[in-house]
Amino acid sequence: xxxxxxxxxxxxxxxxxxxxxxxxALMERAAAGLATxxxxxxxxxxxxxGRSVLLLVxxxxxxxxxxxxxxxxxxxxxRVSALLTDRGRAHPSGLAAFRAAGGLVLTSRAMRxxxxxxxxxxxxxxxxxxxxxxxxxxxxxxWAEWAARAGVRVVAVDVPSGVDADTGAVDGAAVRADVxxxxxALKPGLLVGDGAERSGEVRLVDIGLGPHLNGPVxxxxxxxxxxxxxxxxxxxxDKYTRGVVGVAAGSAQYTGAxxxxxxxxxxxxxxxxxxxxxxxDAVRARWPEAVVTDRxxxxxxxxxxxxxxxxxxxxxAVRALKHVLGSDVPVLVDAxxxxxxxxxxxxxxxxxxxxxxxxxxxxxxxxxxPVGPDRVGATARAARASxxxxxxxxxxxxxxxxxxxxxxxxxxxxLATAGTGDVLSGLTGSILARGAAPERAAALGAFVHGVAGQxxxxxxxxxxxxxxxxxxxxxxxxxxxxxxxx
Length: 486
Hints:
By secondary structure, this protein is α/β, with parallel strands linked by helices. It has helices at residues 7-18, 25-43, 60-75, 92-100, 108-111, 115-118, 140-150, 193-199, 223-229, 255-267, 280-286, 315-325, 336-343, 346-349, 361-368, 375-386, 420-433, 438-457, 464-469, 471-485, and strands at 2-4, 52-57, 79-84, 104-105, 122-126, 154-157, 179-183, 201-205, 218-220, 244-248, 272-276, 291-293, 304-307, 331-333, 355-357, 389-392, 398-400, 405-407.
């Protein structure tokens, strides 16, 4: 499992580690790791020797890391030049090492030339780093624009400049990177919001901070975590020990939501799926293996419920939500169920068993107010205020519970299509019924759903049905990924 820490925790860890090292040793580690990453990047398209590398250098340690790394690239035969935002505030020893290695510090005239960016093989962003606040100011804002306009490959150092390292918020001009090389620990701003979109591929360089980092603010599941949690049933399992999930979804108008949600629950590994609702005929026709009834009261015993997709918001939906939330088993509430819940909050307040809410931004706002630029913070506050696990959908899904926060890094923008949320709900409900803790079940569901979305999108824009059909191959891919890592 990966993890991310806020800037304050990273700074404390850096200070603790530096107290045990000779002066400059930590920067030397970071620069060496960065230079290796840059050389590998150049190696994908012809190697380092003779290649043109342009450094964008701000003041402070981030600029120092870039200058020392640039010196190493120059020693390997690269043609390395640097634009400095403020020559008088450049890292002194880094600048000296860069010049000694043959690096070229460009003049102010060169700073006005966008052609400079178009002629580079690689641009390295060392303008602000994790301490940066707000958008880029002149001349750095122009440099970010020129790099984007030139279409040159950009590698950001620690975090793309102009991105808030803690929240992922972008308030003004910012660098858009193809790759971000970050040191010591992942930062939340690389994983969520606009920051995730601007970070590109994130590569972590170990500089020894691990023993000095406490309690990550964010956990990030990896393939092995998911494969282990969703392992195949054992020889003594039966359909009841594997979990029974109930689905209260769909209506006469929205039968598809019930079909999608039930299908995803069947594919999610539970031993039995019980469907109850107005779309019974459609569900029975598509999924004969489900146990189907028209009335919630006749559904029978389940170990988790999914309620809400396609349910509508009228009196029947209110009655269904009351019935399900009145049970003593975990309940996942999605879509129309969240809209109804926003009007009947007392149903959530009376709950004692676990509840998982899976809103998109507009549904979130109906209960908790606007999400704002800090998606992790907003989701965590909503979880504390409601006592529920909250899964906030988006470019990077955030899951928050009472004591933990997960960010999911699988998925594709193509998942933003009707019905895919119904698939996520059924899948996650199935994992809940199998006995996973609510936060973990939501994070596992988001991971598998994201992998399925990626597979479905490989053949073109997918429908929700395509994502549903990709669930089983996605689970096989995850299991195979774990086997390959052994």
